[in-house]
Write a structure and sequence with these properties.
mainly beta, 42 strands
Length: 618
């Protein structure tokens, strides 16, 4: 037994070295495997309560008086420089220890960068280190990381036009952008695609592409909707596949650098609520797909949702880890999305480690809709968020809100159900977790020492209603956007509305659950409701979990092993992006978060800023 424990401990240390060796934060996921696990230990459970604000930097331009722009950007920290892609159209380099501005570059043509951040390429012989990011106008930019100037040797004076004829298959004027930062693997810049969400069924392709980091030249393309003769084409009809839009990576990709495998979490095909014109399971929609990172060659796939009409996507970062099971160490990848089902797969073969069952699900009433008879469910772990709802399981607590929710359901004759209840036709259905429930694009984190996957989940459901237009086509009716009181931002499902969950990946069991967030407008004794939000967790080797996300303006730290809350601070706005941690030039460990405007009551707070916390100077 002691030898086994020693072997497992050694494996954990090797995993730590492979995925989380740096004290910087060099990509959105910290490391190529997306573990978001830092080896830093200066801040621990005994002193985390002493954290103080060390510096802040305002992103909102002077004189800006409109509503704040949602900040989902994860900063990148290399050496003593923090790089930020601001939603106000600027790329900013800061001194990571003091917050002092080093340089600022404003994008041309009123363009704005990828909503979720940028990437850092370390450079190569004859080419400087660059900061790389996509944009709202479908461009890929590279800036010299030292000077903030366009990298002249990349593309056309530092810019590559992503809107090439190969992907703009229905014409050059359609919307196409890059929502998330690219993956940097060796000297490749690997990009997803921003096709219109919920937009036209036919339009830009969602293909994943790789570009030479020195020159910006295209190296390879993976067709996310298979073409004739390619694997997966038979899961479509020819008419359904041709020029189909959607099926794109709009979240984060990860890489097994040792094996050279890229993991792509792909979204649903357009239209993502109605699939009448696309019979079949529709590969590679709502699938995790593994390809050779050097060539883009298909290796394996796992479809999380067949014929997706729920907009569930598979957009979270596929987290790499090692699972210890039956005396073996299994290279694994974990994917979880809005439907809250976490699949733990062998990352070399794509085979489930804890088993998957195809279970019967309700069928659509929309004429001509051919929904899949079954959907995949993991044997383990259990769903991370709520996935059933009934009239007697609505919110219980504050009398006025409880009555409001009951009236909402009764007045609109809502049909409440369980997993994969289809969008209603001539009725409104609510099928938890819904498009704003479960785990969204930010995903979770993994602690290789404690073998825990930790993620924050939303229990914020989405009513669905399909209607038929005069021309005979079907569309989703967005008349009811959320299952809540829209004025007060109070959900109608059972509490907790937000939760922090840890899964032991060696057993597949949930290790603990903790309510995350408070509703201050409720009376004392009823405030511990949990709150929904955006932004994910990060973990440290000292056993801490940091998370913002909730719309109660709190930034918190928990004990990773137990979920015990150790520290919290109330900010001026919500932390809507995943935080980062790094070592400054003064030797201190910093934890930085970006907060953005908004509130539980919907009031306007123009206060987008970066805030860095650290322990006091000794």
């Amino acid at each position: 037994m002691m030898k086994m424990k020693a072997a497992l401990a050694g494996t954990a240390l090797m995993a730590t070295a492979a995925f989380g060796a740096g004290t910087d934060w060099t990509s959105a996921g910290h490391d190529l495997g997306g573990q978001r696990y830092s080896p830093l230990t200066q801040i621990d459970k005994d002193n985390v309560a002493n954290l103080q604000q060390a510096w802040s930097y305002h992103l909102t331009p002077a004189g800006y008086a409109s509503r704040p722009r949602l900040v989902e950007v994860v900063p990148v920290v290399v050496g003593n420089t923090m790089y930020i892609a601001s939603t106000y159209g600027q790329i900013i380099a800061l001194n990571a220890t003091t917050g002092a501005e080093i340089w600022k570059w404003t994008m041309p043509d009123s363009d704005t960068p990828s909503a979720r951040g940028l990437s850092y390429w370390a450079g190569a012989k004859g080419a400087p280190a660059t900061v790389v990011f996509g944009s709202r106008l479908g461009r890929l930019y590279a800036l010299d990381a030292k000077t903030g100037q366009l990298a002249e040797g990349f593309g056309e004076h530092g810019v590559v036009n992503l809107k090439t004829p190969e992907v703009m298959q229905t014409g050059p004027n359609a919307i196409y952008n890059l929502p998330s930062p690219p993956v940097i693997y060796k000297n490749l810049i690997i990009t997803g695609a921003g096709t219109p969400d919920g937009g036209p069924n036919y339009g830009p392709a969602g293909d994943t592409r790789a570009w030479d980091a020195r020159t910006g030249k295209l190296v390879w393309t993976f067709h996310t909707v298979p073409r004739p003769g390619e694997f997966g084409y038979d899961t479509w009809t020819p008419e359904g596949a041709k020029n189909r839009s959607g099926v794109n990576v709009w979240g984060y990709m990860t890489v097994d650098a040792q094996r050279g495998i890229l993991y792509m979490p792909l979204g649903a095909p357009n239209n993502d609520r109605v699939g009448v014109d696309r019979p079949g399971n529709n590969l590679f929609g709502s699938s995790l797909v593994a390809v050779d990172a050097n060539t883009g060659k298909y290796l394996w796939h796992f479809q999380v949702v067949h014929h997706d009409i729920w907009d569930y996507d598979t957009q979270d970062p596929p987290v790499l880890m090692d699972v210890h099971k039956d005396g073996k160490t299994i290279p694994a990848v974990l994917t979880v999305n809005k439907n809250s089902l976490a699949f733990i797969l062998n990352r070399v073969t794509g085979k489930p480690i804890f088993g998957v069952e195809e279970r019967p699900v309700p069928q659509s009433k929309v004429p001509g809709e051919m929904t899949s008879a079954t959907q995949p469910f993991p044997v383990k772990p259990e769903p991370l968020a709520q996935n059933t709802l009934s009239r007697d399981k609505l919110y219980k607590g504050e009398p006025e809100h409880q009555a409001w929710c009951e009236k909402l359901v009764d007045d609109k004759h809502m049909v409440l159900g369980g997993p994969f209840l289809p969008p209603g036709y001539n009725e409104i259905t609510v099928s938890p977790p819904g498009t704003q429930g479960g785990v969204n694009f930010y995903g979770g984190s993994f602690d290789p020492k404690r073998h825990l996957f930790v993620a924050n989940v939303n229990n914020l459901f989405q009513p669905m209603h399909v209607t038929q237009k005069p021309d005979g086509s079907f569309v989703n009716d967005y008349g009811v956007l959320r299952f809540w009181d829209p004025d007060k931002k109070l959900p109608c499902g059972p509490t907790p509305w937000g939760q922090l969950v840890a899964v032991n990946v060696d057993t597949g069991e949930v290790a603990w659950r903790k309510t995350l967030g408070v509703t201050e407008e409720f009376p004392a004794g009823l405030q511990d409701t949990g709150r929904p939000g955006l932004g994910g967790t990060i973990l440290t080797a000292s056993g801490l979990t940091f998370v913002g996300a909730t719309d109660d303006f709190r930034f918190r730290a928990f004990a990773t092993a137990t979920g015990e809350k150790l520290w919290e601070v109330k900010l001026k706005a919500s932390v809507t992006a995943t935080p980062v941690t790094y070592r400054g030039s003064d030797g201190r460990q910093f934890v930085a978060a970006l907060d953005t405007g908004g509130s539980q009551t919907g009031s306007v707070v123009t206060n987008d800023e970066v805030i860095a916390f650290a322990l006091p100077h000794k």
